[in-house]
Write a structure and sequence with these properties.
Blueprint (H helix, E strand, L loop, with lengths): L1 E5 L4 H9 L7 E5 L9 H10 L4 E4 L6 H4 L3 H20 L4 E7 L22 H15 L3 E7 L2 E2 L6 H11 L2 E5 L3 E2 L2 E2 H13 L10 E3 L6 E2 H11 L5 E5 L19 H7 L6 H15 L1
EC number: 1.1.1.133
Family: Belongs to the dTDP-4-dehydrorhamnose reductase family.
Function: Catalyzes the reduction of dTDP-6-deoxy-L-lyxo-4-hexulose to yield dTDP-L-rhamnose.
């Protein structure tokens, strides 16, 4: 089996690359935007045909939520048209696709964890373009699934965990939002699930294409930051602030906890608690220093 992983230099792609060493019966192709521009339809089609790609894990995305508000065309290129190119190209080979999406497809007005079938209502450009990418996968005739996730972090790349650790070492105190609720997700846990699903030699149900995955539990950004300081042994004081006092270009959902029962049942997986996974990630970050 030949597996293409796009967005390979990002957090999730990097974790998949590390874990792929355990899957010796598969041949992996790791590409990022510099080595394979998924917004170029001909390039993608030729690449997939030439390398006889059977499976694609699409981790590529335009993810800068605030910049997307002023860069619609750039966000569309990757999050919409890039997805369409991958779908069309893998369709010609009868292959399968896992596409990664986001909790930002919801408006955050719920008070119960979001299920896959709940109504979507993105608040900004990023969420809108990611939802349009989902729709392309949903309406395709290929065997494909979308995995929505939230608050992703890793020992790779730039993310909230590494930013908090750096700022915590530099400052005596930090203000962090307490009225946005979701679940932190360790990219390594999501990578394990992607590899587990893509390696299954079974048919993907074409009528059940959306799945939710994050770590277990619930947290605010304030809770998340407090845990980072705790596990990082950093003495910086974290003070709670309201989202209205931290101005951003893009509006964020106030509540984006995901219900994960479907992915747990359909693929027989156990999901770690967010604090347990965070502890492991911080240990890895410290080892790499």
């Amino acid at each position: 089996m030949n597996i293409l992983v796009t967005g390979a230099s990002g957090q999730l792609g990097s974790e998949i690359k590390e874990l792929s060493l355990n899957y010796t019966s598969f041949k992996f192709f790791f590409e990022d935007s510099k080595s394979l521009d998924i917004t170029n339809a001909d390039l993608v089609a030729n690449y997939i045909e030439k390398n006889k790609i059977d499976r694609v894990i699409n981790c590529a995305a335009y993810t800068n939520v605030d910049e997307a508000e002023e860069a619609l065309e750039e966000a569309e290129k990757v999050n919409v048209f890039g997805v369409e190119n991958l779908v069309n190209s893998i369709k010609s080979r009868g292959g399968k696709l896992i596409h990664i999406s986001t909790d930002y497809v919801f408006n955050g007005e719920s008070f119960l964890p979001y299920k896959e079938e709940d109504n979507v209502a993105p608040l900004g450009v990023y969420g809108n373009t990611k939802r349009r990418g989902e729709e392309i996968v949903e309406s395709s005739l290929i065997e494909a699934i979308v995995i929505r996730t939230s608050w992703v972090y890793s020992s790779y790349g730039n993310n909230f965990v590494k930013t908090m650790m750096r700022l915590g070492e530099e400052k005596e105190s930090l203000g962090v939002i307490y009225d946005q609720i979701g679940t932190p997700t360790y990219a390594r846990d999501l990578a394990k699930v992607c590899l587990h699903i893509i390696s299954l030699n079974r048919k993907i149900d074409r009528d059940s294409k959306i799945y939710h995955f994050s770590n277990e539990g619930v947290a605010s950004w304030y809770d998340f930051a407090k845990a980072i300081m705790e596990f990082g042994n950093i003495s910086c004081v974290i003070n709670p602030i309201e989202a209205k006092d931290y101005k951003t270009l893009a509006k964020r959902p106030h509540y984006s906890v995901l219900n994960k029962q479907k992915i747990k049942s359909d693929f027989t997986i156990n999901i770690p608690y967010w604090r347990d996974s965070l502890k492991k990630c911080i240990l890895n970050i410290k080892k790499e220093k």
